[in-house]
Amino acid sequence: VEGINGMYLANKIVDNHIKTFITYNKGQTWALLPAPTTNVAGNNLHCILPFCSLHLHLEMSENPYTSGPITSKKSVPGIIVATGNTGMELSSTNLGMFITSDAGNSWRQIFDEEYNIWFLDNGGALLAVLHATTPLRQLWISLDEGKKWDRHSFSLAPLYVDGVLMEPESDNHIITFFGHFSHRSEWQLIKIDYKGLFSRRCMDGDYQTWYLHNKGELCVMGEKQIYMKRRPGNRCMLAQDYSRIYSSEPCLCTAYDFECDYGWERQADGICSPAFWFNPNSATKSCSFSQSFLNSTG
C-alpha cells in the first residue's frame, strides 16, 4: 500500500478458499479485512469476522491509463480503493467497489459495479468512470472520500473510453479522456478542467489530523504517526506543497518488540517459556564452587 511503511495486502489460499489479508508490520502478523456494515443501498450485510470478510482483487493494472482493480497513492496515505466482494472467499461475481479512509481498519462500499477510479487534486478528490465495454458520457466525482458522488456529463455523444490522462501531482487541474465514438471512428480527445469544483485554496482550518493505527493500536512499525488531510467535503484546492505527515515519534519498546532468549519460545499469550529441550536451571556459564551466576528469564 503506497504511502504507509510496512502495510501490505495479500491474497492467500486457506482451506481451498482465497481470502484477503492485511499486515501493518511487514508481514509479521496478518488479519482478515472487516467487511462494511452496509451495502450501497444501506442494507445491513451481516458479514461477521472470521466467518465472513472483505476480499479484494489485487491485480495491478497493465494499462497505465486505467486504474486497475486496486489503487493507492503516496500522496493520499490511508485511502485505498479496490474491486472486491464480501463473503467467505474471493469471487469474480457480485463485485463492487470498496474504499477505506483509515488504512484498512474499516471499509465502505461505494458502487455495486466495477469502476476505474483516479485521485484528483493531489488526492483531494476522486474521479470514477464505469468499467464497461459500452460507450459512456458520464463520470462521477467525490470530494468527501467517496461518501457522496456527483454525476457530470463529459461528452455530448457517448464515448468508448480507452483511458484517462492526467499530469501527476500537477497544479493545472486538467484531465483528458481518450477513446472513440464508434469502432470505425478516429481517436477522440476530450479535455476537462475540473478547477471549477473548488471555490478557493485550502487554508489551515480546512485540514484535519488523522492518526494511523492498527485496530486502535497507535504504534505502527515502531512509530506514532499523525497525518494531515483535507476535511472531507471542503471544496478547496489542496496546497501543492502541504505536508502529509504532521508528526512522527518513536514508541516506547514493549516485551513484544524483543525476541525470546536462546532456548525459549514465545507462547500465544506473549510470554517466553522454555522449549521442551531446554533446561533453564542448568548452569549456562562455567561456575566454580561457592560462586553464583545470573540466569535468563527468557
TrEMBL record:
InterPro entries assigned to the protein according to its UniProt record, in alphabetical order: Sortilin_C (IPR031777), Sortilin_N (IPR031778), VPS10 (IPR006581), VPS10-sortilin (IPR050310)
Protein name: VPS10 domain-containing receptor SorCS3
Database matches in SUPFAM superfamilies: Oligoxyloglucan reducing end-specific cellobiohydrolase
Gene source species: Goodea atripinnis
UniProt entry tagged with the keyword Oxidoreductase: no
Pfam families: Sortilin-Vps10, Sortilin_C
Keyword Glycoprotein in annotation: yes
Annotated keywords: Glycoprotein, Receptor, Repeat
Gene3D superfamilies, alphabetized: 2.10.70.80, 3.30.60.270
Domain VPS10: 1-298
